[in-house]
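ASSEMBLY PREDICTION REQUEST
Request ID: AP-0331
Submitted by: J.K., bench scientist
Number of chains: two
Total residues: 548
Priority: normal
Notes: Please return the full assembly, not individual chains.
Input sequences:
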Amino acid sequence: MSAGARTEPSCAPSRGSGVRLYWELMRVGFRRTAAYRAAAISGAITNTFFGFLRASVFIALYEGRGVVGGYSLDDALLFAFATQGMVGLVELWSWWRIAETVQSGQIATDLSRPIDYQLAWLAQDYGRALFQLVARSIPPFVVGVALFELALPASPVGWLALLPSLILAIAVSFGWRFCLNLSAFWLVDHRGVAGIANLAALLLSGFLVPLALFPDALRGPLYVLPFSAMVAIPIDVLLGKLRGADLAAALLLQACWAVAMLALGRMMLAVALRKLVIQGG
Amino acid sequence: MRENAILYGLLVGAQVRAQLQYRASFALQVLGQFLANFVGLVTLFLLFARFDTLAGWSRAEVMFLYGLGCFAFGLSDLAAGGFDRLSVALQTGTFDRVLTRPAGVFLQVLASDFQLRRLGRVAQGAVALMLALATLDVAWTAPRVLVLLSAILSGVGIFVAIWVIGAAITFWTVQTSEVTNVFTYGGEEMVSYPMSIYSDGVRRFFTAVVPLAFVTYLPSLYILDKPDPLGLPPVLRFCSPLAAVGFLLAARGAWALGVRHYQSTGS
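STATUS: Completed
Returned structure:
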């Protein structure tokens, strides 16, 4: 990349350069993640391996059975590899970058920059996710589809809907992680929160077990929680389980949760900043 | 040997005392670890609510495999977690300090990151085992008890060997390779289910090269008196300790090679 291609930062940001700034931040997030190429490759291998483990379990479970809870064996196999692809994308666990800046004090510098704090992180997170999509989401999925000769179920509309669904899933997951990270303002050690949060995110999002296979009484309530917006909805869009009005309603639900989560994060930040004292020195 | 045991006790004891200083934080961490592993158990309950058997294994039988694997893996993580942190010591140069101390390098790394909170995972395995055994009607004979105990110890040994080999590789790669996770966390997940469900290549690799089949599947065939669709020689059901010792020796060789290859970053 040539240095000449970049524009010099101006002292008085105009409205046009605002968008440009977040675009640059997104590229920074992309490049920062892309720098760890070995981590990406080994991550893709790990995700593919776990996809195979989960697929083996589903094959054994579905032996002599047809459709269970609306999921056929092919659906379950696609689910196994697609959820592994979601791991890097929505980063469901162990993302504590903001909490670390709270602990180190780096957050003071970040907050003093003349940009929106939350949007700056969101832009970088989209950059991170874009790289992960290429490096860690598509490979396990392609390998699984090719080896088990799975038919891709999504209709043209389904494929078109997948993109906004993934974009919204990342926003909801970022909003959720942003709130979790800000808990570092009140708790010295985030590992306790991390355990409980992981449990909620892994189970309730339909990551480990498809929500379709949950007990019938739980399925409805779980589907409207923000966790399903991170994993279950995009997976169901991919599997072609959502069509027409259901599809539109699911995307709308994701959008609502994205806005709600980001708003909650902003509120938490405002409360945290009221008690934040920065030691000069 | 005795000296090493005393030294290990001293090094670990100091860390335990430090960790117990912040009791509330410690309790939360143990709870966090317990809950993080709780998902495994909940997953089993959810899956078996929809499907009643998995390749001829009942929920309680699969829970037995899961509990055994989780318990052994948790103990190995508790005892040998320091190997997982070796890459940090290599990057920051603190490994040089280890080399200059008048004590064994292996022992120092082994005792370098003892986190009592990892008991959360061990507790999870114990709960699963007890739940399984409460349902299963195992005719407990002396050989069965012996095979169970040897399976736990061998499982710990096999997982410790995997941590050590993973660490030995970092002498070349410096950064911990996430591929090690395939064998550690992936291994734990893998041994939670009967080996017979995996494809041939995977199964052979995890019996003959990395002996994960000896952690839960083979001893459980004997303890739970299950038929083996794989037709492996029945004598293998008692061979977990041999597999563990052999694999630990291989790990020791890999470790020695790695230490010999080590060159300080010099910073």
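REVIEWER COMMENTS: Residues 38 and 71 of chain B are 13 Å apart (CA to CA).
SIGN-OFF: pending second reviewer
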